[in-house]
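Data card: per-record layout.
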Amino acid sequence: MAPMTPARFDAVVVGAGHNGLTCAAYLAGAGLSVCVVERRDVVGGAAVTEEFHPGFRNSTASYTVSLLAPEVIADLRLHAHGLAIVKRSLANFLPLPGNAFLKVGGGLAATQAEVAKFSPRDAQRLPDYYAMLSRVADVLRELLHVTPPNVGARRGGRLALALDEWVYLIATDGSNASYLLPVSLKGGLLMIGLAVLYVFILYLGSRKRS
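The structure for this 210-residue chain is written out next.
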C-alpha cells in the first residue's frame, strides 16, 4: 500500500467525546476542514452507552442532559438526527449499606420523605436548598456561553490548581474516602464553587483590561 500523504486541516480536535464532536460540528459548519482523532474504537465519550455488566447497558457518565443547551440542539438539528429526550422518574438513586437507599426525584414531597429517613431537619430545609440551587443555576446558565477572559497562564494555572484541590476536598475527606453525599448535593456545592470562581476570573480579567 502506498504511503498516505499527510493531510492538512484548518483545525484538529483531539478526543471524539460529545464535547469534541460538538466543537468539530460547529467548526465544520463554519466552513473549516476538521480532523477529529480518538484513541478508542468508539466515539461519544461520556455519552456512549456501554454494557457495564452482562445484560445491563447505560451511559458511561452522561447521566443527564441538563447541560445540553437548547441552542446546540437547534444548531445541530439533533432532533432531526434521532435525538429523543426521555424524562426520568427519579433524579438519583443512592444505594447504602444495610439495604438502605436514598431516592431523589419524583416531586418535592417524595424527595423530602426520602431525606427525612436520615434527617428530618434536612428534609424540612430542602425547599430552601432547591431555591438556592435555582438561583445559582440562573447565574451559571447565563455564563455558559460567555468566553472567559484570558487572565494569563501563570495566574490561570494557580486558579486551576485551587479549583482542583477544592473539588477534591468536597469529594473526599482527604484520605481518598468519599463522603456519603448524594451526587445531586455534591453537584450543588460544585455549582456554587464554580460560580464564585467564574465571577472571580471575570473580575481579574476586567482589572487586567483596565
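Known properties of this structure: Residues 124 and 207 are 43 Å apart (CA to CA). The chain has a mean pLDDT of 76.

See the next section for split statistics.
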